[in-house]
């Protein structure tokens, strides 16, 4: 409760059973029990990059968090170490899923063969088979197959920032900060922070389109995505039914709601390329950030 102190909480995720919240706080992963408000340290002690038991694990400015749907693990975008980590939700033991601590770059491959640059957002597929990663420093969205640790580039991936709606590596982002996988696993929302937009990525095809935002930073609402304005959106999360999304419009100090209409998603499967095309009808509206609270598969 009020006796607990945090240093710089950056990311949060709610456990699948709703009983506790994981918080990325400075160099630590902390646990907040919902019923009592009790705060404990789950993993980490000081700044560093060590894997191992909770008391030996080290993190460097972790940002996004996401629970595996089973609740067994928490995935961590350990941005200062340029890696994606996994923390055992029961014991706090930490391990590196992909990337090399202290080495930045853009390279696909399995586990330590892959490289990231300042990854800040992570989201788990509904079936727990893969991760979507906002590889912020590479202006890219990456995929990690959990069973193998295989990393691949889905969209973006140029060293320079830009704004282009297109497919795969022809698409352009500018500091994508967060991602959220849809309840059906076919779509991924991207908080494209420096472009002041929320983008939509069709997972199977890699096609990127603009869901909301017109590049202006005034907090304007509107019935269509291109009539709304955002300022440095840092977090995004699908609602439980997938028909709406919450956005942390950080530059405007608002939590915004995007209502969208699209066809029903296919039944979630293990294939990380599952997806479909859709036409969207949108409404953006304001509520009242830094990152949006994510659940088991949502961004954090």
Provide a compact summary of the structure.
It holds the Pfam family TEN_NHL. With 300 residues, the chain is mostly beta strands.
Can you walk through the features of this model?
- The chain is mainly β and 300 residues long.
- The chain has no helices and 21 strands.
- The protein has strands at residues 9-14, 20-25, 28-33, 39-43, 62-67, 73-78, 83-88, 94-98, 109-110, 119-124, 130-135, 140-145, 150-156, 176-181, 187-192, 197-202, 208-212, 233-238, 244-249, 254-261, 281-286.
- The strands form five sheets. The protein has a five-stranded antiparallel beta sheet with strand order 9-13-12-11-10, with no helix packed on it.
- It is globular, with a radius of gyration of 17 Å.
- It starts with 8 loop residues before the first strand and ends in a 14-residue tail after the last strand.
- 49% of the residues are buried.
- The model is unreliable at 266-299 (pLDDT under 50).
């Amino acid at each position: 409760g009020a006796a607990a102190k945090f240093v710089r909480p950056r990311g949060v995720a709610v456990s699948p059973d709703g009983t506790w919240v994981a918080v990325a706080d400075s160099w630590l992963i902390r646990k907040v029990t919902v019923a009592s408000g009790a705060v404990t340290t789950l993993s980490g002690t000081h700044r560093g990059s060590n894997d191992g038991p909770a008391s030996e694990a080290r993190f460097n400015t972790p940002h996004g968090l996401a629970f595996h749907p089973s609740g067994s693990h928490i995935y961590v975008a350990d941005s200062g170490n340029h890696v994606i980590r996994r923390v055992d939700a029961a014991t706090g033991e930490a391990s590196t899923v992909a990337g090399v601590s202290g080495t930045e770059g853009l390279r696909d491959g399995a586990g330590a063969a892959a490289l990231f640059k300042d990854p800040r957002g992570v989201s788990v597929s509904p079936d727990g088979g893969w991760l979507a990663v906002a590889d912020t420093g590479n202006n890219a969205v990456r995929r990690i197959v959990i069973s193998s640790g295989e990393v691949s580039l889905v969209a973006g991936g140029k060293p320079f920032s830009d704004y282009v709606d297109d497919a795969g590596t022809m698409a352009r982002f500018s500091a994508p900060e967060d991602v959220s996988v849809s309840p059906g696993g076919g779509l991924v929302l991207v908080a494209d922070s420096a472009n002041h937009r929320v983008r939509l990525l069709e997972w199977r095809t890699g096609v990127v389109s603009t869901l909301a935002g017109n590049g202006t930073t005034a907090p304007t609402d509107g019935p269509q995505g291109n009539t709304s304005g955002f300022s440095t959106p840092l977090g995004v999360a699908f609602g439980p039914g997938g028909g709406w999304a919450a956005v942390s419009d950080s530059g405007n100090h608002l939590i915004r709601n995007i209502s969208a209409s699209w066809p029903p998603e296919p039944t979630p499967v293990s294939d990380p390329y599952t997806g479909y095309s859709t036409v969207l009808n949108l409404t953006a509206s304001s509520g009242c950030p830094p990152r949006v609270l994510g659940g088991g598969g949502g961004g954090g």
